[in-house]
Design goal:
The longest helix is centred in the first third of the chain and has 11 residues, at about 30-40. The chain is globular and about 40 Å long. Strands 1-10-5-12-3-2 form a 6-stranded antiparallel beta sheet, covered by helices on one side. A 3-stranded antiparallel beta sheet has the order 4-8-7, with no helix packed on it. Strands 9-6-11 form a 3-stranded antiparallel beta sheet, with no helix packed on it. It starts with 16 loop residues before the first strand and ends with a strand. It is mostly beta strands and about 160 residues long. A hairpin with a 5-residue loop joins strand 2 (about 50-55) and strand 3. It has a single domain (about 15-160), classed as Jelly Rolls, CATH 2.60.120. About 5% of the residues lie in helices and about 45% in strands. The protein has one helix at about 30-40, and strands spanning about 15-20, 50-55, 60-70, 75-80, 85-90, 95-100, 105-110, 115-120, 125-130, 135, 140-145, 155-160.
């Protein structure tokens, strides 16, 4: 069994996490910044405007966003090197496509400034995220969030950028 704690090297090969916020206690031991992101969700004011909030300088950012879901062909599959994403759905529902990056073909090289690399589509592994659901996407997790589920919908979510 994988032992969780403050040693991130133990978590590097951990698969993407997909769960509901009611089970958040299971993931708090992964890292203190993941725990702090979950605290932010618990105290979130739904009246807060969209925008970026630094919770621990550049080590932990919360990006509150609202948008319309789009067809998968209009979105890009991406991964990050510096940050882990924790994506939490406040309202609406979307499809998120996922695939481990070792099985993907690079489409656009890594951009250091934006901390993003894009891949050719691989839309066969998908999750539906609804209000209260979250996912944690590690550096080896290619992902394409914000895609239509059944029909276009308005989504409100928080994307945390977590440096581990």
């Amino acid at each position: 069994m994988l032992e969780f704690g403050t040693n991130y090297l133990q978590v590097l090969s951990y698969p993407m996490i997909y769960d509901h916020i009611r089970n958040q206690a299971l993931y708090r031991p992964l890292h203190p910044r993941i725990s702090r992101a979950l605290d932010y969700i618990n105290g979130f004011d739904p009246e807060m405007a969209d925008g970026k909030v630094e919770l621990d300088g550049e080590n932990l950012l919360a990006i509150v966003q609202s948008y319309e879901t789009r067809l998968p062909a209009n979105k890009k599959l991406e991964s990050h090197r510096r940050y882990v994403d924790l994506q939490y759905i406040l309202s609406g529902e979307e499809t998120l496509f996922h695939r481990q990056i070792e099985s993907l073909v690079v489409k656009e090289p890594y951009e250091e400034e934006r901390d993003v690399q894009f891949y050719h589509d691989a839309d066969d592994q998908s999750l539906v995220l609804r209000a209260g659901d979250f996912c944690i996407l590690f550096q080896h997790d290619g992902h394409k969030p914000g895609c239509v589920y059944c029909q276009a919908r308005t989504i409100r979510k928080i994307v945390f950028k977590i440096r581990l």
